[in-house]
Design a protein that fits this description.
elongated; about 25% strand; nine-stranded mixed β-sheet; 3 domains; 27 strands
Length: about 575
């Protein structure tokens, strides 16, 4: 059973099925409020000793929690004069109202800096008031917190505020959980009984501050199931059932990494109960289980008996970055695709329709920071005058399939994990109402935003032009078409780029076929698939070449993609 209230590191989780506060009195009497107050006072003693000393002088160092809890309960029903008449010991407190206001403001800010999640637990049925009223319940809770804060502060001041700011004071994300058993068997029984996420309600702007903002190293393939016999505390885990392309993934994450698990909703389509109940997943990922070793562990395994691809990432400060969540899922999907004789593509692909009716499907291959997404964003911006529609097929990872000798592209994600540093100023503000922001105060800050529909990414689009994203050479012509198949294969397989700070790599680096996520681990199989795909591209006279994004050249971070986008536009027009 998930607790009424739990708090770890920087997040709090409230189980509205066990405790839902409807009045200010219920809020102040709740376990959650008492724990928040207690944690705030402890933080004061460590980080704001000046205010802590002032408060301690007024009510005693060991009585701060008790004194303010009792005072707050009185202030929601009485004004300060009535409080003093009731208990004259409070008179000295009100003589120092500026200290009281500082304490209340600090407590309110402390609450708002936490990542705040609410849960409602249901069974398989869609009926019931909990499902119907969940959005309303989260809105009412936000108003309750805000009104309680204002009531207490205005009672201390003895007057109303002149300006009111409707800040997000409730929860950042609400989650409806489905508690139905999934009947997992064999090595996967350890996961049976973990609640599945059925619905998510986000309150934007949703900003999270994970400990890391880079990913490092490769995911290692192992040959024993890494999740077999894991000592999981099932009440500490949640499962996000994701549709990754045409694969069904069960992504299990520890509550410590609630921010990363919830963020999946902006990246992958959330499967409906009828799409996963009593069905075997294709991919299983366990993220954040504590193990005895203090080393970072990120491994994957192919269970040939059940035909399930398994990922495991152990709890560690080094993996507190969304890239470890996203890229392992895509690695599992890629290995599955390779085994189905389909070629995983690390890149971006769009279907473009101009107002004059011309269409083109453009695919750009490149590793992290190569400029694939930036070039397509520049294309969208520059060609707006002539553009009728642009559909994103994939923004990071896709699959090429050969069908009747033609190459088609399929996507995996409905969202984009965008590096803000190289986009135009103000881009983030345009997406504030639907994006999830990650470490916006740091280099390699990211936002996670929906960009496509599931129907579009799984439809399949014939490739009309395929380009390799070169971010380190300052060529005069933005796009170069390569007539020789072997030369183009060599460029794509070498996977050269200048590292842009998205990983711990530096300088000019290379990765096999620009894809370290399953492709490099299955190199022998992939060699055959590359030859098959490129042979069919050249057979059908599809143009293959290099796009010089110049993203790794100082001062060209925006001009490079813009020039490349202009040439792409001219190519479609002709």
């Amino acid at each position: 059973m998930i607790k009424e209230y739990s708090q770890n590191r920087s997040n709090v989780i409230m189980n509205f099925s066990l405790k839902y506060c409807e009045t200010q009195e219920e809020l102040l009497n709740s376990k959650g409020f008492k724990k928040v107050l207690q944690k705030y006072v402890l933080n004061l003693e460590k980080k704001d000793l000046a205010l802590f000393d002032k408060v301690s002088l007024l009510c005693g160092k060991t009585q701060v929690n008790k004194t303010f809890l009792e005072l707050f309960k009185l202030l929601i029903v009485l004004d300060k004069k009535e409080v003093i008449l009731l208990n004259k010991s409070y008179k000295s407190l009100f003589k120092n109202s500026d200290i009281l206001i500082d304490f209340v403001e600090g407590l309110y800010s402390h609450w708002r800096k936490l990542e705040r999640y609410a849960l409602i637990q249901t069974n398989e049925s869609d009926s019931g008031i909990q499902n119907v009223n969940f959005v309303e319940a989260t809105d009412n809770f936000a108003n309750l917190v805000l009104n309680t804060y204002r009531r207490i502060e205005e009672s201390i001041l003895g007057s109303q505020h002149s300006v009111y700011r409707q800040l997000s004071a409730g929860i950042n994300a609400g989650v409806v959980l489905n508690n139905a058993k999934k009947e997992l068997k064999g090595d996967f029984e350890v996961l049976d009984g973990i609640s599945f996420i059925k619905q998510i309600v986000l309150t934007p702007p949703f900003v999270i501050y994970p400990k890391k903002n880079k990913r490092s190293g490769l995911f290692e393939e192992v040959f024993e199931n890494p999740i077999k016999d894991l000592p999981l505390n099932k009440s500490h885990y949640f499962c996000f059932p994701a549709k990754v392309g045409k694969s069904l993934a069960f992504v299990y994450f520890h509550r410590r990494y609630m921010n990363h698990g919830i963020s999946l909703c902006n990246l992958f389509e959330l499967a409906k109960p009828e799409e996963y109940l009593h069905k075997q997943p294709n991919l299983v990922y366990v993220f954040g289980q504590k193990i005895t070793s203090d080393k970072k562990k990120t491994v994957f395994y192919q269970d040939k008996k059940s035909d399930i691809y398994v990922g495991f990432t152990a709890m560690h400060d080094e993996i507190d970055y969304f890239g470890y969540m996203k890229k392992m899922i895509l690695t599992l999907h890629n290995v599955r695709m390779i085994n189905q004789n389909k070629l995983p593509i690390h890149g971006a692909m769009v279907n473009v329709t101009l107002k004059n009716g011309k269409q083109a499907n453009i695919a750009i291959v490149g590793d992290s920071g190569a400029g694939k997404s930036e070039s397509l964003e520049a294309f969208r911006k520059l060609s707006g005058k002539y553009l009728k529609e642009i559909k994103i097929i994939f923004d990071d990872m896709g699959t090429f399939e050969v069908e009747n000798s033609k190459v088609y592209g399929y996507g995996t994600e409905i969202g984009a994990f965008i590096r803000l540093d190289d986009l135009e100023p103000g881009y983030a503000f345009k997406e504030m109402d639907r994006a999830i922001f990650m470490n916006p105060n740091k280099i390699n800050s990211r936002l996670l935003v929906p960009v496509a529909t599931y129907n579009d990414i799984t439809k399949g689009y014939k490739v009309d032009i395929l380009l390799y994203a070169n971010n380190y050479e300052n060529k005069r012509v933005p796009i170069k078409i390569i007539k020789d198949k072997e030369e183009s294969i060599s460029i794509f397989k070498k996977g050269l780029r200048k590292a842009k700070g998205t990983t711990t790599e530096k300088g000019i680096v290379e990765s096999y076929f620009a894809n370290p996520f399953g492709v490099v681990q299955r190199k022998e199989q992939v060699e055959i698939l590359i030859e098959k795909v490129f042979s069919n591209l050249y057979k059908n006279k599809v143009e293959v070449g290099v796009i010089y994004t110049k993203l790794g050249i100082e001062g060209q971070e925006q001009k490079g993609p813009e020039k490349a986008a202009k040439m792409l536009f001219e190519w479609i027009m002709n």
